Amino acid sequence: MFPHLKGFNLQRWIDENRNNWGQRRVIWNDSDFIAFVTRGPNRRKDFHINPGDEIFYQLEGELNLHYLSDGKPELAVLKTGDLFLMPARVPHSPRRREGSWTFVIERKRTHEEKDLFIWVCEECQKSLYETDVRFDDPSDAVAKASEAMRSDKNLATCKSCGAVLEL
């Protein structure tokens, strides 16, 4: 076997670590790709805009993959065994229920690239807030992006219709 080839049993790895798991665990990020497993539940309201394609494979449970198409909300429901390719630059918000486990593969970002995170009003779809972050480690990129929204409730209030986004 070539020393640079890496492989292991994904399901066994999850089962062995199932009781000692945070929100997500990186499998590898020392290649052209970042691969990680993430689980539910989560309470995301942000939309991630990735500069590259993103692959979702639903291992267990259900993933509600909210995304914006021409600014309008859409939903793809992924069930166990479903595979989904999210094209680059499509705003998407993966929302997982309890018992949901998802395998995600993304390409590494170049030094010039940053990921964009946006929040939109659920009532009128107007933009509330956006920020960009370096996506070197998926374990903390969402948390870094969400810091301002969580610390300043005014950012969650729509300037157009007055609705407040519950985070």
Describe the structure.
It is a single chain. The chain has 167 residues and is mainly beta. The protein has a single domain, classed as Jelly Rolls, CATH 2.60.120. Helix content is 13%, strand content 40%. It contains two helices and eleven strands; from the N terminus they run H-E-E-E-E-E-E-E-E-E-E-E-H. The strands form three sheets. The chain has a five-stranded antiparallel sheet, with no helix packed on it. A three-stranded antiparallel sheet has the order 3-10-11, with helices on one face. Strands 6-5-8 form a three-stranded antiparallel sheet, with no helix packed on it. It is globular and about 50 Å long. The protein starts with 9 loop residues before the first helix and ends in a 16-residue tail after the last helix.
Question: What distinguishing features does this structure have?
Answer:
167 residues; Jelly Rolls; 5-stranded antiparallel β-sheet; 2 helices; 40% strand; globular
Following the backbone from N to C, one meets helices and strands in this order, namely HEEEEEEEEEEEH
CATH-level-4 superfamily name: Jelly Rolls
Low-confidence stretches: none
CATH fold assignment: Jelly Rolls
What is the number of independent domains? 1
The CATH architecture category equals Sandwich
Approximate helicity band: 10-25%
Q: What overall geometry do the principal axes of the alpha carbons give?
A: globular
Radius of gyration: 17 Å
User: How far do the termini sit from each other?
Assistant: 48 Å
Largest sheet: 5 strands, antiparallel
Mean pLDDT: 89
Strand content: 35-45%
Give the helix tally.
Answer: 2
Number of strands: 11
Based on secondary structure, the structural category is mainly beta
CATH class type: Mainly Beta
Strand order of the largest sheet: 1-2-9-4-7
